[in-house]
């Protein structure tokens, strides 16, 4: 039984006979997309974990793409009716959009077991544990036999618009060069599944022999990595023409470690 942002008003804090609960089916998975307090945030969705596994995409409260200006949202690519509904209850309605996208992407929407969204964002809950991560949405029940006692809270990020799934990678770059310089470092991944856009790994003072790490959420599953593109730039014209390179670049996929 999949709960798509189960309702908060009149249900949160009530006995389990009244609201959705993991005792209602052999396997209950929940997608929380609008779990901010109803007052004053107008959150429509329940916030506590109530299923066997509970997914909190983007932290579960504010979904990317829902803060667009009202006109652009109402004149939506899916039509004015869909756009108007999104304007009124965008976060709440993201749950079924993620679910429908998950049918098309059996390897997408990996939820990382974590205590909080902040810890997930910092990389503390990366990569997936040895038993793997469950997939939010249609294929969540593949994880059914791996459930242990208690509640399992899972975190992930999504895109702003369809297609919503993102794949998480840890990218570690060790710089080479003669002297430090101010600027930024970008990396793009190339693989058997396709290529990513450039992601900024670090900016500020770049020091040779220092190692910089970033967690990136790519729009595609790169698959087996064949090449990494490294680019750096300083923020202004430097007459000394400093040079920097990448001594090593390490990429770890969250999915298969």
TrEMBL record:
Pathway: Glycerolipid metabolism; triacylglycerol degradation; Glycolipid metabolism. Its EC number is 3.1.1.26. The keyword 4Fe-4S does not apply. One of its GO terms (cellular component) is extracellular space. It catalyses: long chain 1,2-diacyl-3-O-[alpha-D-galactosyl-(1->6)-beta-D-galactosyl]-sn-glycerol + H2O = long chain acyl-3-O-[alpha-D-galactosyl-(1->6)-beta-D-galactosyl]-sn-glycerol + a fatty acid + H(+); 1,2,3-tripropanoylglycerol + H2O = dipropanoylglycerol + propanoate + H(+); a 1,2-diacyl-3-O-(beta-D-galactosyl)-sn-glycerol + 2 H2O = 3-beta-D-galactosyl-sn-glycerol + 2 a fatty acid + 2 H(+); 1,2,3-trioctanoylglycerol + H2O = dioctanoylglycerol + octanoate + H(+). Its main location: other. Belongs to the AB hydrolase superfamily. Lipase family. This is Pancreatic lipase-related protein 2. It comes from Polioptila caerulea (Blue-grey gnatcatcher). The lineage of its organism: Eukaryota, Metazoa, Chordata, Craniata, Vertebrata. The gene is Pnliprp1.
